[in-house]
Amino acid sequence: MYLKKIEAQGFKSFANKMVLEFNPGIMGIVGPNGSGKSNVADAVRWVLGEQSAKSLRGNNMQDVIFAGTENRKPQGYAYVGLTIDNSDHMLAIDFDEVTISRRVYRSGESEYLINGGACRLKDIYELFYDTGVGKEGYSIIGQGQIDRILSGKPEERRELFDEAAGIVKFKKRRQVAAKK
Ligand code: ATP
Ligand code: MG
User: Fold this and answer.
1) pTM
2) pLDDT tens, 73-103?
3) Which residues are CB-contacts of 14 (< 8 A; sequence separation ≥ 6)?
4) Which residues bind ATP per the record (predicted)?
């Protein structure tokens, strides 16, 4: 499994359609301060279901929508699509390529899609449990996160090990079953 493509439109500084294609291996994104490097990482976390505006460096959820510039009108919606090569079928879905997408309008209306079909946020979370990829996964290590992991509470650190051990989905199912 590897990240193949990120598409964004109207998301943060990406007013125009932005497409980044990746190959297996290492790739770096470089650019001057304020050019949008961190916005790329925010786009990935957002499409994976990040619900906290603060962790996306905004005040409210609409802050991810391109706010306009002096000579450019604001956008009405933000869109991000993430395409993953799933030819090794690490994701439990019967497709060799999986595209997760999310769109949010200024009105607050929003939608999630898996391969073009509308889905619930829960479906996105479930698809990525135990893969390390989800919004809480360790595949995205933000600034200051190493510090938080080292100095965090044991329970928080435990969540990381649970994900790596592949037992999150069982724990979640047990929680749901216990509530019934
Ligand atoms: P650094 O090297 O300083 O970390 P960076 O390349 O990571 O910089 P980002 O933080 O990704 O830069 O981008 C910040 C830019 O994104 C700012 O110029 C900010 O104005 C712009 N930006 C953020 N949200 C929006 C939005 N909703 N609409 C328009 N522009 C936005
Ligand atoms: Mg940055």
Assistant:
1) 0.90
2) 999 999 999 999 999 999 999 999 999 999 9
3) 8, 36, 39, 43, 66
4) 32-39
